[in-house]
């Protein structure tokens, strides 16, 4: 739609007639998120609380639609980049967030680690260097004071505060490692989330295909990158009284990781009594073919 027509419709949002408002709103909702700056300008130029509320609702609806469209496209893409999926989860809470800003912060961490790596190091030695840069130099750690808060799952907040939960810290760890050519992937372990260091980089192609994957060891990002063996994972599963499942020991897909991040958000918003956000996260989760009860 032409700019002048969009502006004309925006000016009609303060019409007292519900019928006129409903028609105008319907037309504007057909547009993309690119009209949000015009809606924001209209909000700034009025003191009418009803007009402002209508503008706020319209802005939020368009931004939510944008995130939902982006997530749907990401899910249907064969190149389901993990960082971009995590970025979309953050974009729900921060609609103005730019992927470039998140990506640049990840690349800076990658560069800091790359300067310390060389091809003669063993897998264990490489992990020790990653752990040192991530947890000692950059100070990433578990958020103990507000562990269940939504911010611990949102990748942009974790990159800023250096505090997160098992899955957000693991996502940063895995993305950085893979950009360094190291086959470190997420393992969807219930009540925790760990990483697996694959024996061969070629095994990356086997993930999610039911093929045998050889794992050198596991990494617990929430515990400063502590290295674990299979026995420790088995002990944890037994300790938590979980039914043994082969998936607890194998890398999961990027889609599984992003779905779990959204489930974490769902729980956070339920815990903080934000029903509107709960319903919207359920709507995003429905794109994965599963709606939590």
Automatic annotation (TrEMBL):
Domain Protein SirB1 N-terminal: 101-263
Pfam families: Transglut_core2
InterPro entries assigned: SirB1_N
Leader peptide range in chain numbering: none
Source species, domain of life: Bacteria
Family membership noted in the UniProt record: Belongs to the UPF0162 family.
Protein name in the entry: Protein SirB1 N-terminal domain-containing protein
Species of provenance: Geofilum rubicundum JCM 15548
């Amino acid at each position: 739609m032409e700019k002048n027509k969009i502006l004309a419709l925006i000016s009609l949002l303060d019409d007292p007639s519900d019928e006129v408002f409903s028609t105008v709103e319907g037309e504007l909702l057909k547009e993309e998120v690119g009209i949000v700056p015009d809606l924001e300008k209209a909000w700034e130029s009025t003191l009418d609380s009803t007009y402002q509320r209508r503008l706020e609702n319209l802005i939020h609806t368009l931004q939510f639609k944008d995130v939902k469209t982006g997530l749907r496209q990401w899910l249907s893409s064969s190149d389901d980049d993990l960082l971009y999926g995590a970025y979309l989860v953050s974009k729900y809470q921060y609609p103005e967030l730019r992927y470039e800003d998140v990506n640049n912060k990840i690349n800076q961490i990658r560069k800091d680690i790359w300067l310390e790596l060389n091809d003669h190091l063993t897998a264990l030695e490489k992990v020790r260097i990653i752990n040192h840069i991530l947890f000692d130099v950059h100070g990433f750690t578990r958020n103990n004071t507000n562990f269940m808060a939504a911010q611990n799952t949102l990748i942009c907040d974790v990159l800023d505060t250096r505090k997160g939960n098992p899955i957000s810290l693991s996502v940063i760890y895995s993305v950085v490692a893979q950009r360094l050519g190291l086959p470190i992937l997420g393992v969807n372990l219930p009540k925790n989330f760990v990483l697996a260091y694959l024996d061969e980089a070629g095994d990356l192609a086997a993930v999610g295909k039911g093929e045998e994957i050889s794992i050198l060891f596991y990494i617990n990002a929430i515990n400063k990158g502590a290295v674990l063996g299979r026995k420790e994972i088995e002990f944890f599963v037994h300790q938590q009284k979980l039914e043994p499942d082969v998936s607890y020991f194998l890398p999961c897909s990027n889609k599984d990781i992003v779905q779990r991040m959204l489930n974490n958000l769902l729980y956070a918003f339920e815990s903080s009594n934000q029903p509107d956000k709960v319903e919207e996260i359920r709507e995003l989760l429905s794109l994965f073919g599963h709606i939590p009860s």
